[in-house]
Amino acid sequence: MSKKNKIALALMLLLGIGIFIYSVRGVSYRALVDDIHNLHWGWIVVAFLCMGLSILCEAIVVKRLLKRQFPDFSLKDSLRIPLIEALFNGITPFSSGGQPAQLFALVQSGVDAGRATSILLMKFVVYQSMIVINFIVCLFLGFHLIADKLHVMGILLIFGFVIHLAVIIGLLLIMYWYNFTKKLTKLCLKPFKRFLAPARYERYDKMINEKIDNFYRESLTMKDNYKLLFQISLITLVQLFFYYIIPYFILLALRVDHVSLVTVMTLHVLIVMIISLFPIPGGAGGAEYSFSLIFSTFVDSGSKLVLAMLIWRIITYYFGMFGGMVALVISPRKYQRKTLATKED
């Protein structure tokens, strides 16, 4: 990790501690201690296990994508990729550091940059698509449950969905209507010509066109592997299922057993969509507020709500970050690319 990243990590840990201290300011210390004492630790273990299985599913996706050219790529080295992603997503605004960090980790393992980019691209497209599908389903199932609580955040929820959907539409346009997308991009960039210096405009124009060209070249491989895309889509759905179910087990650990599994998962999907809009790394502040606001529906005790929020953040945010720190110091095995004549199975 660079010095800048270490500082960002330290700041996020301090911010997390600060948010927790702020959250407990009006909560009885005795009540909080009693709630911790009465926790059903078995369900906490299950919640951690679900997070671990979610990370494992992502590692299996990586391994599956590497199977043809790197058939002996181990599951242990595959696990490094989502863990390192979790770390750098957690310390960069809008989770922007996860993709470059994964690319670096794959190159460390001997995967050439071009192949690594293709793998991460396919993984990103599938993940975004599954996020959008999950959100559409949950929007119909659960938006009415929280509409009266979210108010302004309800607008953010829809805005978050529009952004994710726009990303998918943009990627599909490049994949299937390349020439049209190039013309549309040039048209959209034209107004900025009035406000930007000619050199800067040319630089941005060149950079965007290079990214479109690179994506299109990589997408040609994706379009020829429908079976592979279907397989990793199913694995990604399982990955998201394990992630979205975590709050349900946290509530059971707090002995709040009058909740519906489907309802809790639906609300968690909506929370995650809201978090993605906050520019602060990890959605710090917004994540805790959203969770507390929405899950107050099930928890009527202030101390239990704060404890549920803390456990949720430890499992879904800090667990992956600390796992990523461990993954960074473990040197991966160097793999040799194997050229196979057979098709992707």
From TrEMBL:
<comment type="similarity">
    <text>Belongs to the LPG synthase family.</text>
</comment>
<dbReference type="GO" id="GO:0005886">
    <property type="term" value="C:plasma membrane"/>
</dbReference>
<keyword id="KW-0812">Transmembrane</keyword>
<keyword id="KW-1133">Transmembrane helix</keyword>
<protein>
    <recommendedName>
        <fullName>Phosphatidylglycerol lysyltransferase</fullName>
        <ecNumber>2.3.2.3</ecNumber>
    </recommendedName>
</protein>
<comment type="function">
    <text>Catalyzes the transfer of a lysyl group from L-lysyl-tRNA(Lys) to membrane-bound phosphatidylglycerol (PG), which produces lysylphosphatidylglycerol (LPG), a major component of the bacterial membrane with a positive net charge. LPG synthesis contributes to bacterial virulence as it is involved in the resistance mechanism against cationic antimicrobial peptides (CAMP) produces by the host's immune system (defensins, cathelicidins) and by the competing microorganisms.</text>
</comment>
<keyword id="KW-0472">Membrane</keyword>
<feature type="transmembrane region" description="Helical">
    <location>
        <begin position="154"/>
        <end position="178"/>
    </location>
</feature>
<keyword id="KW-1003">Cell membrane</keyword>
<dbReference type="InterPro" id="IPR022791">
    <property type="entry name" value="L-PG_synthase/AglD"/>
</dbReference>
<feature type="transmembrane region" description="Helical">
    <location>
        <begin position="83"/>
        <end position="105"/>
    </location>
</feature>
<keyword id="KW-0443">Lipid metabolism</keyword>
<feature type="transmembrane region" description="Helical">
    <location>
        <begin position="125"/>
        <end position="147"/>
    </location>
</feature>
<feature type="transmembrane region" description="Helical">
    <location>
        <begin position="42"/>
        <end position="62"/>
    </location>
</feature>
<feature type="transmembrane region" description="Helical">
    <location>
        <begin position="228"/>
        <end position="254"/>
    </location>
</feature>
<dbReference type="Pfam" id="PF03706">
    <property type="entry name" value="LPG_synthase_TM"/>
</dbReference>
<keyword id="KW-0808">Transferase</keyword>
<feature type="transmembrane region" description="Helical">
    <location>
        <begin position="305"/>
        <end position="330"/>
    </location>
</feature>
<dbReference type="GO" id="GO:0006629">
    <property type="term" value="P:lipid metabolic process"/>
</dbReference>
<dbReference type="GO" id="GO:0046677">
    <property type="term" value="P:response to antibiotic"/>
</dbReference>
<feature type="transmembrane region" description="Helical">
    <location>
        <begin position="261"/>
        <end position="285"/>
    </location>
</feature>
<dbReference type="GO" id="GO:0050071">
    <property type="term" value="F:phosphatidylglycerol lysyltransferase activity"/>
</dbReference>
<keyword id="KW-0046">Antibiotic resistance</keyword>
